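Hello again,

I reread your note about wanting to compare the complex against the isolated chains. To keep things tidy I'm splitting this into two emails, and this first one only covers the full assembly. Below are the input lines as submitted, including protein chains and any nucleic acid or small-molecule components. They are followed by the predicted structure of everything together. The single-chain runs will come separately.
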Amino acid sequence: MSDQTRFTLNETDLPKFWYNVMADSPVTPAPVLRPDTLEPVTPDFLSVLFPMELIMQEVSTERYIEIPEEVREIYKLYRLTPLIRARRLEKALDTPAHIYYKNEGVSPAGSHKPNTAIPQAFYNKKAGTKALTTETGAGQWGSALAMACNFFGLDLEVYMVKVSYQQKPYRRIMMETYGSQVFASPTDLTNFGRSVLQQDPNSPGSLGIAISEAVEVAATSGGKKKYSLGSVLNHVLMHQSVIGEEALKQMDLANEYPDVVIGCVGGGSNFAGIAYPFLHENLKNGKRTRLLAVEPTATPSLTKGVYAFDYGDSAKMAPVVKMYTLGHGFIPPSIHAGGLRYHGMAPSLSAFYDAGLIEAVAVRQKPTFEAAVQFARTEGIIPAPESAHAIRTAMDEALDAKKKGEKRVILFNLSGHGHFDLGAYEAFLNGKLEDYEHPGEAIQAAMSDLPKVSVLA
Amino acid sequence: MSDQTRFTLNETDLPKFWYNVMADSPVTPAPVLRPDTLEPVTPDFLSVLFPMELIMQEVSTERYIEIPEEVREIYKLYRLTPLIRARRLEKALDTPAHIYYKNEGVSPAGSHKPNTAIPQAFYNKKAGTKALTTETGAGQWGSALAMACNFFGLDLEVYMVKVSYQQKPYRRIMMETYGSQVFASPTDLTNFGRSVLQQDPNSPGSLGIAISEAVEVAATSGGKKKYSLGSVLNHVLMHQSVIGEEALKQMDLANEYPDVVIGCVGGGSNFAGIAYPFLHENLKNGKRTRLLAVEPTATPSLTKGVYAFDYGDSAKMAPVVKMYTLGHGFIPPSIHAGGLRYHGMAPSLSAFYDAGLIEAVAVRQKPTFEAAVQFARTEGIIPAPESAHAIRTAMDEALDAKKKGEKRVILFNLSGHGHFDLGAYEAFLNGKLEDYEHPGEAIQAAMSDLPKVSVLA
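Full-complex prediction:
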């Protein structure tokens, strides 16, 4: 065990390969289906939205995929991110546990999202794409892709959920500073947006609507524009594996190995990013690290959802995948962790959870912010509300270790900073934060509309 | 020359000593005077506001002062900060110059300010202080001291300029999250605040007023509260020397040595932090690096001020020092770089400028934001408006090197990020940013009220 607090590595230690968990998956992946026919998709179908190299990564079973030099050059602007031992938090909790965190909040866009935004922009540029479309809720993903598109000279249209567009002008300005166009969704620029506005001119928008708008624009652009997604898909999760690959080396520097690895989950990408390289160690090298995904009680897809085929978006335009879902029509409560308000979960993560390879827990909003404030007051960093879910659970693990009088090595992913979320902190400090349970009836209702798939695989 | 982009060091390389430039100063420092008598201050006078160890540091001529282990432990939460070669910016400028920057924006409070906030809180705690008072304009300093006071269990009252308090609620919430009390200055809690409000109930406040309120509260607390200042003083600048001490080692890793070192100046602390260790090399080891301080044309204390004794605050309650000043009554235009809106300049920096040991240049607001946006689009990071002044000048140096066809190694300090300044970016992107020259008549008027000092030294 090292007596250091901060574990940094040199640029020469920057990973040269992404780790592709599908090479080691003990679970056969369910096929991805077309939303119209519910038949398996073909690469041709996907190629309307994505460049071929990303599609090949999506279905690849190669264990390591080389990170292009052009991508590594940009990773170097902020990677390797530091691994920190949270000594001050440990002391405050008076726990025998050792708590480590990987700080992805140091990226220019403020979260782990650039790890996949950069390669997605790169492969699109390489394939001749001129422009991308995407959606964003709270704005972490939109900011990251805006930065990446700017680096590769791609235009970007961001469909930003209208309520966030109004409440978070700073996120919008950040994307505009990087040169992107940002629209408040629903817009009158798409058929789907217009149909929503016709029914409700004051619609506040939703991630489902914004996805549908971004997909529609790309799909009807005659090949000029492609679409980009910030989570859920295999290739997206794979790009995030740089987090865990670095953490493996840094834990080695710390001369410790985690008993439990923790991350928050919305679509699943930051959790997969830190956890899958440790899953590889579990599957191939006899390690027994617990991998613990944390979701809000307000959108409990793993802990209260079903494992079934469902649409990726509310408008049924996105591919149908087998995943833990609350139903594509599920409208989550307005919790502040905007990045965790997705009805489904990455298919790979869903499959591993189903197979018992990973664990899940749901936490409420108020104890999550209690943890966030305690973290800020011990470690200094004000975390994103999403990341605070991981902090809550890391603290609960540390307190459990204390209760049992056992040493435990805990590693969690601090996926981003909360500089654009201070309104939520104010609500918490003023006692105005609500504490959502999962809305049972809403889940029941949303699940009544799952697609009827006659499965093949 | 290294082919790396990012130069990181291990925790074990964290400096163990601050560098005190006063040990090497070829200029005899002018005495600090009491504002009431204009006679030299005694330690007793200062001890009303500051703990003795900081006063001793203020007058010390020891070259290296050991950084307490308790302070180093907290530095480790974010230090050593990375040194980055701005390869993408160099390419965009098509310059033969090499541009390096030290990124202090990775600190939890978002700037270099914690480098001195942490030791100031530590020495106060050690001396038995229970609470500190301070002022803040844009909020960088207040956030840093709020974090530091929280770490050492000190209460903190922050007098925040009212117009900033209203325009930057996120900075206020950040301080509250760390557990501090924040007041919109002028308040009705102090004699001085009440007198201001009596004259103008709608006063937007100013840094001068806020300083006076914070000083009054500490001075009249019967020893219970001390006061803390975020720039200008010798001990503050010395604490910032960790920036330059690290940069020396990192430039060594890069196998280059800077021809010019650049920082923005308000009170002077971030510039001094990066520049003084290189000044030491100039004075003692025969190096000839140019040290270039950058100020806004709107508050051009070095380039348009006079070198004279003046009060540190508008209310004439703070000590009188010899410095480059625009006059303590100078009301700067409302530029977005709130941290650079000070009428004076650190005495040490003023003396070195007067002696020709450092250079200064003033830049306008619009070209500064042009540089900020180009930096964001090449290096990813959205800089603080203050730091953008250094970027503008670094780019001008790189373009000058290109014009002359010469290689030039440029190092600048990126003192903070601009996450709380995106309103200014929006104004720039919308063409609404004003471009201030120095207001000549305002300077003339403010200078007519300099104290008449019959100098001794």
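For quick reference: Residues 89 and 378 of chain B are 5 Å apart (CA to CA).

B.
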